[in-house]
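Good morning,

Attaching, inline, the backbone tokens for the sequence recovery test we're adding to the shared suite. The designed sequence is right after.
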């Protein structure tokens, strides 16, 4: 095995990994230098998480090798990776809520004194010193469930450092943080790097890459397609590497723009919330589908919650058909013609143990109320008609909705909104976790609703879906609008630049992405 250059701590060579029906990684080379902050980027499904799971010892590659400090190693467990100083902070923090800060810092690697007893005094002293340097000012005895997310991240970092960490993998660490917390977090990361720690930084926020990272590696469809120093890249070049193509011109559309002459159904002006949204403004005409594009933490769901009356804004106005409204809750929103299909259909959208019939009519039970009981015949006929219209596959409307597939569950949520006769549809990730056929059915229904005059706000993490179904797209980053595109001007690179925090209005001219391939 060839000995690596002295500044290379880890080198992964020819890494491949397949799952049933999916080639997650194909012959990927990936190296981490000592004391650098390396950005690992790519679209969803590019292979970033799979590669890092292999490096962290949580998964075994089908082919390839890992070289650490110039010698080949095998990571058959996370413990093996820990022994070489490799730790990971996942997006979902790996802490036990009811245990104290101190107990979580040493979770899985408690220290003993020379008498074989747990060295609580030594652990308390060292954890206190470490957390103090990281900026934590609270008590070590506080249960972590009482900490803010930013403070919990400090506990995760301290936990990694107590393992004599040399490489820290961070997966979307800033997603749950506000602006001030992100700045503090970056100060901590820079301090760790200055002390000699290597950091792999996985993020979808373009501005973060250029603010804090030294080098970037790009994955696309399981392959490494580019590597460069951040100082040598422009934002547009990086986006083109991620996409694999140059799309400087907007996508052309044959779709009618008649909705632009229609009445504005929903007008949002300068909506703000204390913790995230800042002066968010956009409008939706009758017959228009407006997409909200953004990454996790951009404010997409928060906007819908405000519009639906779940959360209250600190500033701004909302008008429906020209009249100011501020709903006190979902019941009032439904009465005002606004319906929400929530992001998490299982925990927020459906009562899984209850029948299909109940879930489909939950928002409009009044219309089925008789003098003494529910008019079940009328209700059943309506539910069957809705299921037929939406092509829901089911055995009986009395079956629990939890027995349906994800796509059919999503259709039941849409059936509920149709039964409630809403005019404004707020759809949060309506195609998440469903198959291609069900997605096509959802797209067709959304366009059908718009063609009949409904106003639709469509949230999706997949930009291609927004390009497919929307008439205009509002781009969001960290709670603010960074760009708005009409269908005739759609440009995926520009949308990506906007949602990743770029202030650029145009892509400008850039060379072929192949010129940056390494």
């Amino acid at each position: 095995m060839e000995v690596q250059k002295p500044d290379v701590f880890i080198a992964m060579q020819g890494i491949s990994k397949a799952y049933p029906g999916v080639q997650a990684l194909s012959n990927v080379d990936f190296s981490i230098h000592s004391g650098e902050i390396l950005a690992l980027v790519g679209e969803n499904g590019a292979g970033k998480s799979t590669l890092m799971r292999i490096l962290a010892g949580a998964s075994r590659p089908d082919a390839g090798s890992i070289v650490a400090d110039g010698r080949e190693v095998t990571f058959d467990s996370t413990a093996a990776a820990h022994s070489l100083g490799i730790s990971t902070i996942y997006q979902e923090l790996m802490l036990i809520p009811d245990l104290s800060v101190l107990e979580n810092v040493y979770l899985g690697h408690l220290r003993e004194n020379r008498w074989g007893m747990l060295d609580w005094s030594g652990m308390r002293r060292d954890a206190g010193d470490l957390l103090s340097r990281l900026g934590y000012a609270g008590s070590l005895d506080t249960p972590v469930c009482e900490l803010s997310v930013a403070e919990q991240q400090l506990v995760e970092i301290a936990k990694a450092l107590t393992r004599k960490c040399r490489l820290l993998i961070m997966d979307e660490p800033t997603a749950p943080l506000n602006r001030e917390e992100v700045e503090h977090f970056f100060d901590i990361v820079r301090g760790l790097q200055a002390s000699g720690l290597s950091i792999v930084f996985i993020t979808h926020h373009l501005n973060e890459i250029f603010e804090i990272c030294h080098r970037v590696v790009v994955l696309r469809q399981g392959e490494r397609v580019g590597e460069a120093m951040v100082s040598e890249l422009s934002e547009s070049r990086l986006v083109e590497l991620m996409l694999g193509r140059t799309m400087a011109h907007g996508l052309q559309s044959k779709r009618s723009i008649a909705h632009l002459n229609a009445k504005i159904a929903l007008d949002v002006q300068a909506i703000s919330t204390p913790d995230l949204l800042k002066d968010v403004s956009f409008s939706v005409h009758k017959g228009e589908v407006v997409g909200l594009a953004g990454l996790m933490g951009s404010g997409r769901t928060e906007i819908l919650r405000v519009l639906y009356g779940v959360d209250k804004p600190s500033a701004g106005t909302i008008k429906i058909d020209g009249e100011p409204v501020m709903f006190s809750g979902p019941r009032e929103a439904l009465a005002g013609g606004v319906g929400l299909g929530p992001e998490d259909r299982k925990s927020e959208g459906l009562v899984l143990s209850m029948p299909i019939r109940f879930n489909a009519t939950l928002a409009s039970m009044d219309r089925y109320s008789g003098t003494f009981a529910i008019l079940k015949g009328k209700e059943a006929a309506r539910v069957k008609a809705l299921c037929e219209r939406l092509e829901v596959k089911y055995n009986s409307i009395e079956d629990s909705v939890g027995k349906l597939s994800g796509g059919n569950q999503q259709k039941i949520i849409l059936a509920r909104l149709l039964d409630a006769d809403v005019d404004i549809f707020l759809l949060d990730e309506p195609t998440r976790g469903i198959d291609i056929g069900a997605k096509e059915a959802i797209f067709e229904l959304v366009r059908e609703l718009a063609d009949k005059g409904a106003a639709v706000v469509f949230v999706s993490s997949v930009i291609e879906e927004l390009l497919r179904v929307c008439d205009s797209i509002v781009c969001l980053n960290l709670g603010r609008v960074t760009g708005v595109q009409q269908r005739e001007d759609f440009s995926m690179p520009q949308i990506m630049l906007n949602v990743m925090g770029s202030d650029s209005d145009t892509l400008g001219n850039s060379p072929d992405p192949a010129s940056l391939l390494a």
